[in-house]
Amino acid sequence: MFVLDTLRHRLRRGCETMAFPDGPPPALPDRHGGALRVDAQKCDAGCSACVSVCPTGAIARPASEPVALDLGRCIFCSACVEICPTRAITHTGDHRMAVRRREDLLLGGKEGETVRLAAALDEQLRRLFGRSLKLRQVSAGGCNACEADTNVLGTIGWDLGRFGIQFVASPRHADGLLITGPVTRGMELALRKTYDAVAEPRIVIAVGACAIAGGPFVGHPQHHQGASAVVPVDLFIPGCPPHPLTILDGLLRLLGQLDPSRGR
């Protein structure tokens, strides 16, 4: 009877895995404003209020230059959005933020107003990894927030495995690394050894502000200000932590599993 009750319960619940990317993405929580947009033309001359409130130095405004924001350093505290008198920096509500190049996370100034989203791997790598990608996750001194949102992708609601993406226990079974944390001095050797243990060709994904640029620990002498100082990075996914939808979008974008019309 217990087995029959369980089966009836599951049938009543139906499929609980989200339809994304075939259906509309789930809405971001109210407190999650999504990616930021920088309209440097709206900046008041001489105003630098946003610069002084940014806890990670992600915002700069050199003399006679428009405001610029490094989304890789940003921890999405919204202090700049709240203090800007002209709304030059605003939330977009867009979950899409992953990029292939570090410089594509620079907004404002001459860099553009919004994120330049990641392109897919080349054709040869897509043939290798497009339908089966095994990743070894490396926590290189993080606080476990990015790790938690990465773990969410394995739950029934997200079901990362349906895209052929799985996390494995050994780098020798992996096609690449997913790195969180700022890469502390104590984790440098471990990360290098883990990277070397992955067979070529391999890919590296930096998840979160810490893994991209040091996050709230930026400038501290006991870490490397992000993973790219130690190993080459193929995909940068900003956030503190990134929403699971942002991580999933970045992974699918890298593998060419998203319709190009869904990206900018």
Count of β-strands: 10
Mean pLDDT: 90
The CATH topology annotation of the domain at 123-254 reads as Rossmann fold
Structural class: alpha/beta
pLDDT under 50 segments (min length 5)?
none
The number of helical elements comes to 8
The largest beta-sheet arranges its strands as 7-6-8-9-10
CATH architecture type of the domain at 123-254:
3-Layer(aba) Sandwich
Largest sheet: 5 strands, parallel
Dominant shape: globular
The CATH class of the domain at 123-254 is identified as Alpha Beta
Key terms for this structure?
globular; 264 residues; three-stranded antiparallel beta sheet
List the helices and strands and how they pair.
Blueprint: H1 2-13, E1 36-38, H2 49-53, E2 59-60, E3 68-70, H3 79-83, E4 89-91, E5 106-108, H4 123-129, E6 133-139, H5 145-152, E7 165-167, E8 176-180, H6 185-197, E9 203-207, H7 209-213, E10 235-237, H8 244-254
Parallel strand pairs: 6-7, 6-8, 8-9, 9-10
Antiparallel strand pairs: 1-4, 2-3, 3-5
Describe this structure in words.
With 264 residues, the protein is an alpha/beta fold. The chain has a domain at 123-254: Rossmann fold, CATH 3.40.50.12280. It is 25% helix and 14% strand. The chain has helices spanning 2-13, 49-53, 79-83, 123-129, 145-152, 185-197, 209-213, 244-254, and strands spanning 36-38, 59-60, 68-70, 89-91, 106-108, 133-139, 165-167, 176-180, 203-207, 235-237. A 5-stranded parallel sheet has the order 7-6-8-9-10, with helices on both faces. It is globular, with a radius of gyration of 20 Å. It starts with a helix and ends in a 10-residue tail after the last helix.
